UniProtKB/TrEMBL annotation:
Gene source species: Brevibacillus fortis
Protein name: MerR family transcriptional regulator
Molecular functions per Gene Ontology: DNA binding; DNA-binding transcription factor activity
InterPro entries: DNA-bd_dom_put_sf, MerR-type_HTH_dom, MerR_fam
Domain HTH merR-type positions: 16-85
Keyword Protein biosynthesis: no
Keywords per UniProt: DNA-binding
One matching Pfam family: MerR_1
Length: 331
């Protein structure tokens, strides 16, 4: 269908259209087309001396694709990365399917609350009943979260893994204080999804295997959890700043950050770490990037909003590891 639509546009490849015409052809609006230009998602083929944006069939096709992806609820950043080839389309689709699954759970939870409130037939007391119902659900969710995390710790981490490090390695933060107050409907749905993951023996075996193989490579830090966590936080902030400034994986600032991160797991205190250790560590980290681990991270970013900035830096981190490995292979 889309190929046929594009072929029809190709017959007028040399023709140029004003922004109003483009909006009409695509069923969009002039402000929307202008906005996509301003954020760098859809640039016009030409801007006339009078300041008019002109578009060819190629830009119109790109706009139609953007509008289709937006209809499917893809975010602007995801669309940028898909069109640039930074995210494989099949991976982006899988992410979106998972996001929609959680949204469906969220809507089902909200519908259930409303239906229970309606059935209560409390008249003016309905709002109070609804409030108490949500409070009860949130309270239960907090208890469930504690149970699920304890189950993760006991099933994923081997006995030789020090208990004081488990929370740090699992989520990168102190999970005991992550969920406070009432959960949103989306968080409740994400908690359901997380529980499903750790009720799946195959997923538990996979994550436990990753932890065991990780322990074969790294030297557990010999400093306190608090000090190590502070260094991790500093490292994360530096990488987040680099990501926000659109630093590339091979840039000096990103590579220096990667080296500082790796040294926290080595048996040395100063840079640089040996090439052999870096290679073992990087290969282990890259090998552990399974679909289930990515799913786990995405669920956690919904359940724990404070982890969303971590998700932003995650891809840059692994790209930088991969780039450094490629350089070592050339030496």
């Amino acid at each position: 269908m889309y190929a046929n639509a594009r072929n029809r546009l190709d017959t007028t490849q040399n023709q140029k259209f004003f922004i109003g015409q483009v909006a009409k052809i695509t069923g969009s609006s002039v402000p929307t087309v202008r906005y996509y230009d301003e954020i760098g998602l859809l640039s016009p083929a030409e801007i006339t001396p009078g300041g008019h944006r002109m578009y060819t069939a190629e830009e119109i096709w790109r706009l139609k694709l953007i509008l289709t992806l937006r209809y499917l609820n893809f975010g602007i950043d995801e669309i940028k990365r898909m069109l640039a080839g930074d995210i494989p389309v099949d991976m982006a689709i899988e992410w979106q399917i998972e996001a929609l699954d959680i949204q469906m759970r969220t809507l089902a939870s909200m519908k259930s609350i409303l239906e229970q409130t309606k059935q209560n037939k409390g008249g003016n007391d309905s709002l109070s009943y609804m409030h108490e119902l949500i409070e009860s659900i949130s309270s239960d969710a907090l208890e469930r979260e504690k149970f699920i995390l304890e189950k993760m710790f006991s099933s994923v981490f081997p006995e030789q893994f020090p208990i004081e490090w488990r929370e740090i390695f699992l989520l990168g933060v102190n999970v005991s204080s992550l969920l406070e107050g009432k959960l949103s409907a989306a968080q409740t749905a994400a908690l359901d999804e997380l529980e499903e993951m750790f009720n799946d023996p195959q997923i538990v075996r996979e994550m436990k295997h990753d932890v065991m193989s990780f322990l074969e490579v790294v030297h557990l830090p010999k400093i306190s959890v608090e000090m190590w966590s502070a260094r991790m936080l500093t490292n994360h902030k530096q990488l987040l700043k680099a990501a926000e400034q659109h630093a590339t994986p091979d840039s000096p600032v990103v590579q220096e950050n990667i080296q500082e991160y790796v040294v926290m797991f080595a048996d040395v205190d100063e840079l640089p770490v040996s090439h052999s250790f870096f290679r073992r560590f990087a290969e282990r980290m890259l090998a552990s990037q399974s679909e289930n681990l990515e799913r786990f991270r995405r669920i956690c970013s919904i359940l724990y909003p404070s982890l969303q900035s971590y998700m932003k830096t995650n891809e840059l981190f692994y790209q930088a590891l991969q780039w450094k490995l490629q350089q070592l292979d050339k030496e």
